Amino acid sequence: MEKQHDNPFQFTKAVILLPLFFVLTLWSVFWYELQFQDNLSHFGIYPREVYGLKGILFSPFLHGDIEHLANNSVALLVMLPILRYFYKEQSFVVLFLGILFSGLGTWLLGRPSYHIGASGLIYVLVSFIFFKGIFTKYYRLVALSFTIVILYGGSVWYMFPNVKEGISWEGHLAGFFVGLALALVLKTPQFSKPFFYEWEKPDFNPELDPFMKNFDEKGNFSPPPKPEEVIREYFNSSMKVVYEFLGGKK
After folding, report:
1. Which residues contact 215 (CB under 8 A, 6 or more apart)?
2. What whole-number distance in Å separates Cα of residue 92 and Cα of residue 73?
3. How far is the C-alpha of 35 from the C-alpha of 24, rounded, in Å?
4. In whole angstroms, what is the distance from residue 70 CA to residue 79 CA?
5. In this protein, which residues make up the domain named Peptidase S54 rhomboid (predicted)?
6. Which helix (H) or strand (E) holds 71?
7. Spatial contact of 8 and 190, defined as CB atoms under 8 Å apart
8. What is the DSSP string of 131-147?
9. Which distant-in-sequence residues (6+ apart) come within 8 Å of 75 by Cβ?
């Protein structure tokens, strides 16, 4: 039977390399657009059009301007290391399904315009890390959830229309609910409480165990005899009692 690892949080190179590689890819695409004057926005998500489906995979890597790119890069450099460090076993699944389903949600809900940017993925990460920490009830992850609220609690307003011009609130909303769904569906066995049988405990004494008492020294099944039942008299008296049954007289 598998037991919980003493420390489920292990720092690896991927904690640093994953966010750096992802963000470097975003900047490389943006550099290409500037260098060759090639606007790739048409690779974004265009809702409810078949040709707009390609944006589900490509839109997170496209950004409209340097401010948009910088804001998302900072958020990813914060959220991706947290995801990889605290949820190592689930990190790539969250990334892949987060991009896929948040993009699909944007395609279904979005306004008829090209939707680009990694904001949807960021909302997936924020939502997943917050809710998963609450659901696991693991004290470190609960503390992490409250930290996420402090850092990004204000971003909840950008899931509603007309809050800020030019943002894809539909992508934010889709990402939020996808993160919540992943927190509900994905299992985190590394944080489950360990279960020990009685015979696995260090203070186990076979001589005192009720089950082990059913076996003799050679291991043969030999349960101890059952104690004799004692029939107790429920009425005792030193006085003579005479019973007279009146119902039998005529």
Report:
1. 221, 222
2. 18
3. 16
4. 14
5. 56-186
6. helix 66-86
7. yes
8. HHHHHH--HHHHHHHHH
9. 118, 122, 152
Amino acid residing at 209: D
Q: Which two tokens stand for residue 220?
A: 């043969």
Q: Return the DSSP state at 115.
A: B
Return the amino acid letter for 8: P
Spell out the CATH class of 13-185: mainly alpha
pLDDT tens digit string along 105-119? 999 999 999 999 999
Rounded Cα distance between 198 and 205, Å, is 9
Query: pLDDT (tens digit, 9 = 90+) per residue, 150-193?
Result: 999 999 999 999 888 889 999 999 999 999 999 999 998 887 76
Residue 55: partners with Cβ closer than 8 Å, 6 or more residues away = 43, 44, 45, 46, 103, 107, 114, 115, 116
Which of these, 103, 109, 132, lies nearest to 44 by C-alpha position?
103
CA-based torsion, 174, 169, 117, 41: positive or negative:
positive
| pLDDT over threshold 80, residue 125 | yes
3-state helix, strand, coil in the chain (%, to 5): 60, 0, 40
Name the nearest CA neighbour of 102 among 46, 178, 50.
178
